[in-house]
Specification:
- It comes from Desulfonema limicola.
- This is Lytic transglycosylase LysM domain-containing protein.
- Pfam families: LysM.
- By secondary structure, the chain is an alpha+beta fold.
- It has three domains: 96 residues, no CATH class; 112 residues, Sandwich (Immunoglobulin-like); 423 residues, Glycosyltransferase (Alpha/alpha barrel), CATH 1.50.10.10.
- 37% of the residues lie in helices and 20% in strands.
- The strands form twelve sheets. The chain has a five-stranded antiparallel β-sheet, with no helix packed on it.
- β3 and β4 form a beta hairpin.
- α6 packs antiparallel against α7.
- The relative contact order is 0.08.
């Protein structure tokens, strides 16, 4: 045996003994282990704690290392190796207040720091000129600007700064005798000695008719100083004042609609600049705009809701097809695709507007969508409505050459349609069109019950096609599915069918309990101001779904394992769960349901309070191509719904809640 062979043989023996000793160490303590697990790709001890023990703290990491002496670095453990997880006593489980997990692992802040000062007062000295006063907590160079969101900044000369850190400037805000009801942004931009912009102090102002020397102070109405922590309706109104613009000021000619109003769907902060193009080019969406219009109608802001609906009504073609989204600032992109779910929400908003105003303005379009769009999309076997159309031969900068029909029926789309059609049938009563809508709703409801309900799971499948059910687990299928079932329960009760009413109530409870079991999450945050906390909510999906895959990152093309995303709170979906529990409590008087709804609302208020403009993150986790961390319109609108329906006065409004097309 040569020297090389001896060395190799000795090394193999030592390696065997080393491995065996580790195996013996685990085997010797196996009675003390809660479980033995095998390390997977990407695992760290922190991830293992959350996945297998349900908790995490530095103390638990230390305890695991004591049980597994072969682990030297908790962030570098080898795939395939075994780990003994010790039992954890209640005393060892840390309180939420004692540990926090920043979403970006300390590399990037969740929210930017609060503004270094404030704009506190304006005094109008004539129709379009005002003296602006405020405070700046810095000695940086500064320039004062006025601009409309999406437009260029206009410098205002004559800025005066004083020793007590206050400033004063005379600013022109809009054009003489024009630009009323338009939102302007007042901005004090801060620069370093090299001329680089390092910060800003801003304040949105809505231009209105006013008296000479009228003073407007920005105090309690705007929440805490610098707009930090504005929640509820004041926060919603502040966010809208930053995002909205007169439709005639749009750069996209198709959206220049007289007496129309646009609300940009996204607002992006410094922590995810890769998606800021969506707000830079003024992305507006049919779904977000429809949700907002419904919230405004319920709040009593009928004029503004009508202006929002008017812009989108102008986009409908002769067959009732409407684009999903468009850019309206510095770009003329219009989505070539059409989706039934978004159309359903718009249809519900039109029906609600028609019920409240009785103006007849929306009558022709309602009929066009129902007869020309929905009826041709009826799937003959199930009676459900297909998902819409994909535009052919267009990337959004020219009209599609044609449309390809989507051959899949979405549960979510059909829930939305049932709600909208039931409201339309109420608005039009016993007329031919009213009966047409009522019968279509009944047919859709029958299809939902027969083809979308999963008896074994106790919730709805994501969709259906003639080849069979789409059994992907989506949160909306449990939450919006529960809202559909509760509507059916109410309708059955109205016709004195107690057996059917109880049947639907039982299924609604099953859906909601499914959501509680499979979708709940907690997000831990830490702000630059060192505010720490946690927000409980729900993620959008559960399990593995073949058509939902990562587009980038370490494993592009890999299916997303939604069960691993325990820190992802999807605000829009979470608020949908809150609405469903609130409605279930209204039907049954169930105290647990009411408590869950209140808990969800309070958590979402907490999330809203992190914004400096009253906005709400769409998701606490960015997944490119699927979920964004931008502040988003539909999420804020669902917050408005939940805010409204929990008001005791709301139930007195013509029983509108029993008709509302959620």
């Amino acid at each position: 045996m040569n020297n090389y062979t001896r060395c190799l043989f000795t090394f193999i023996i030592l390696l065997f003994l080393c491995t065996a000793s580790k195996g013996i160490a685990i085997e010797k303590d196996i009675s003390k282990c809660k479980k033995i697990i095998t390390i997977q790709k990407g695992d760290t001890l922190a991830k293992i704690c959350r996945r297998h023990l349900g908790e995490y703290s530095p103390e638990l990491i230390i305890k695991i290392q004591k049980y597994n002496s072969h682990i030297k670095n908790p962030d570098r453990i080898f795939i395939g190796s075994k780990i003994c997880l010790p039992p954890v006593s209640e005393q060892e489980i840390p309180l939420e207040s004692s540990f926090f997990k920043p979403v970006f692992a300390g590399k990037r802040d969740v929210y930017p720091p609060s503004m270094p000062g404030t704009i506190s007062k304006i005094q109008w000295i004539n129709d379009n000129t005002a003296i602006v006063e405020g405070r700046m907590d810095t000695d940086a160079n500064s320039i004062f600007y006025v601009y409309v969101p999406g437009d260029q900044e206009y410098e205002q000369p004559g800025l005066e700064k004083y020793e007590n850190n206050t400033f004063r400037v005379t600013a022109v805000i809009g054009r003489q005798g024009r630009d009323y009801d338009k939102t302007f942004i007042l901005k004090l931009a801060l620069f370093d000695t090299m001329g680089e912009r390092i910060g800003e102090i801003t304040r949105p102002v809505v231009r209105t008719h006013h008296k000479v020397n009228e003073i407007v102070s920005f105090g309690a109405k705007h929440g805490q100083e610098d707009d930090i922590g504005i929640t509820g309706w004041p926060g919603i109104e502040t966010w809208l004042s930053v995002q909205e613009l007169d439709a005639m000021d749009a750069d996209n000619i198709d959206f220049k609609i007289p007496q129309g109003r646009l609300v940009v769907n996204y607002r992006y902060m410094g922590y995810n600049p890769d998606e800021r193009y969506l707000s830079r080019y003024g992305r507006v969406t049919l779904y977000g705009s429809s949700c907002l219009a419904k919230a405004l109608l319920l709040k009593g802001s009928i004029k503004k809701a009508g202006e929002i609906l008017r812009v989108w009504a102008a986009q409908a073609d002769e067959n009732g097809k409407m684009p999903r989204s468009a850019n309206v600032i510095g770009d003329n992109y219009i989505s070539p695709d059409v989706r039934t779910g978004e159309t359903a929400h718009f249809l519900g908003a039109l029906a609600l507007a028609e019920k409240i105003t009785k103006s007849g303005e929306w009558d022709e379009l309602i009929r066009k969508i129902v007869i020309n769009y929905l009826e041709p999309l009826t799937e003959p076997v199930s009676g459900l409505i297909l998902g819409g159309y994909n535009g052919i031969g267009s990337q959004g900068y020219n009209k599609p050459k044609g449309y390809e029909k989507i051959t899949w029926c979405s549960a979510e789309h059909n829930f939305d349609l049932f709600q909208a059609l039931m409201l339309i049938s109420h608005v039009y009563g016993d007329s031919d069109f009213g009966r047409t809508c009522y019968n279509m709703a009944l047919r859709i409801g029958k299809g939902i019950d027969q083809y979308l309900w999963d008896q074994d799971a106790g919730t709805f499948n994501r969709g259906w096609r003639p080849q069979g059910p789409d059994r992907a687990r989506a949160l909306d299928c449990s939450s919006w599915g529960a809202l559909y079932l509760l509507k059916q329960a109410g309708l059955a009760k109205n016709r004195h069918d107690e057996k059917a009413s109880q049947h639907y109530l039982k299924r609604a409870e099953s859906c909601l309990n499914y959501a509680e079991k499979h979708f709940k999450t907690t997000w831990y945050y830490q702000t630059p101001g060192d505010k720490k906390g946690s927000i409980k909510g729900y993620r959008p999906y559960a399990g593995l779904i073949d058509d939902l895959r990562y587009e980038d990152g370490a494993d592009p093309g890999k299916m997303i394992n939604w069960n691993e995303l325990t820190d992802m709170v999807w605000s829009e979906g979470t608020l949908g769960v809150g609405m469903a529990w609130e409605e279930y409590a209204r039907h049954t008087g169930n105290k647990r349901a009411k408590n869950i709804s209140r808990e969800i609302y309070n958590n979402m208020i907490n999330l809203q309070s992190l914004s400096n403009k009253g906005g709400m993150l769409y998701s606490t986790k960015q997944i490119k191509g699927h979920f964004t961390m931008g502040e988003e319109l539909a999420s804020l609108s669902w917050m408005a719904y939940l805010n409204l329906v929990t008001s005791s006065d709301f139930y007195k409004k013509d029983n509108i809640i029993s008709l509302m097309p959620w």
